[in-house]
Amino acid sequence: MEQTPKNFRKIIHIDMDAFYASIEQRDHPEYRGKPIVVGGSPEGRGGVVATASYEARKYGIRSAMPSKRAKQLCASVIFVRPRFEVYKDVSRKLREIFHRYTDLIEPLSLDEAFLDVTHDKQGIGSAIDIAKLIKQAIKDELQLTASAGVSINKFVAKIASDMDKPDGLTFIGPSRIEKFMEDLPVEKFFGVGRVTAEKMRNMGLHKGADLKLLSEADLTKRFGKPGKFFYKIVRGIDDREVRPDRETKSVGAEDTFPYDLEDVSEMMEELEKIATILEGRLQRHGFKGRTITLKIKYHDFRLVTRSQSFPQGVNDKPTILATVHQLLIATDLEEKKIRLLGISLSNFGELGERVRREDESDQLKLF
After folding, report:
1. Which of 154, 262, 325, 333 has the highest Cβ tally under 10 A?
2. Catalytic-labelled residue, pool 24, 55, 106, 112
3. What's the predicted TM-score (pTM) here?
4. Is-contact 124 25, C-beta < 8 A?
5. Is 111 annotated as a binding residue?
């Protein structure tokens, strides 16, 4: 480790458990103990799952799964219409709880945030004790549960919060970090999607310990700029600060497909799923952007983007979908196989509220 004990940060990552679904089960007793999903459509006729309750997850149902697939996995699953205003109100109450202990709060979404409690407001001193107090306040005041990860940097705290869900608290202290990172599967590293993970495994790189054997130059040569991040993080080094004033510059969603798309109608079907997710994110946060961008990655990994700007901000699915359709057909699709499609909205200007968010959370992987 390159840090000394006196300058260790105390970072907490709070992640609500099945946030939307838990709120619905809290507010509707008839849903408790039953497999429910928020989003999608009854009878699995279209749309995608926004959140699945833990009862639904036992059947393999996951966020962003097509509702048709969710219905196939669990015939008795209950589809619930999302109530974003309610979720936003709960999120505001969460922030009020966080602010009792620190003003260094960096929300990643409505249901998760980083907190820097190195110098907490109440002089408690222990990040573990603060995490316990926050979790208890969430239970007592909101009748919901959260999982917490506690460590000396953002990356490890975020990984830790997912280790004992639901209602968990995991502390990974300085002496444990390097061993923890060595044992971490490569697909758990930020920046490692399915394609990169497969590439790594083909190179014999399965865990952090394997990455640690490579020099920074080797990692950068093989993986580009993320290689520098991999080199540091596998050694437990993450100097990123909790940034309460970070402003979202773009919001996007994308999907990498298990096979190459060759049919335009199939491409549009996938783009509709992506646009549905994107519309929900934009409208939850009150964003309207002037620039819509279509991202295409071909089977040979060639990446192209096409954009269209508007005089006024937009955030509705029909406009987004019509725009990316035109952008798609304007590209050279002859004998081209597509492996990834993505849509993003940017150029918010004064049209979007300022939110605090970590860079890497701005894109949503659909599967």
Report:
1. 154
2. 112
3. 0.69
4. no
5. yes
Taking only the tens of pLDDT, the chain with its 367 residues reads 344 345 789 999 999 999 999 999 999 999 999 999 998 776 655 667 888 999 999 999 988 788 888 999 999 999 998 888 899 899 999 999 999 999 999 988 789 999 999 999 999 999 999 999 999 999 999 999 999 999 999 999 999 999 999 999 999 999 999 899 999 998 888 667 777 888 899 999 999 999 999 999 999 988 887 888 889 989 888 888 998 866 567 788 888 887 788 888 888 888 998 998 888 888 766 778 889 999 998 887 788 899 988 888 888 888 899 999 888 888 876 667 888 899 999 887 543 333 333 333 333 333 2
Question: Phi and psi for 358 in degrees, rounded to 5?
Answer: -80, 140
Q: Copy the structure tokens of residue 204.
A: 């014999």
Tokens of 242: 């909790």
- Cα–Cα distances in angstroms (integers) from residue 352 to residues 160, 248, 298, 355, 365, in the given order: 32, 9, 32, 9, 23
Q: Which domains does the chain have, with CATH numbers?
A: 1-172 (3.30.70.270), 177-233 (1.10.150.20), 250-365 (3.30.1490.100)
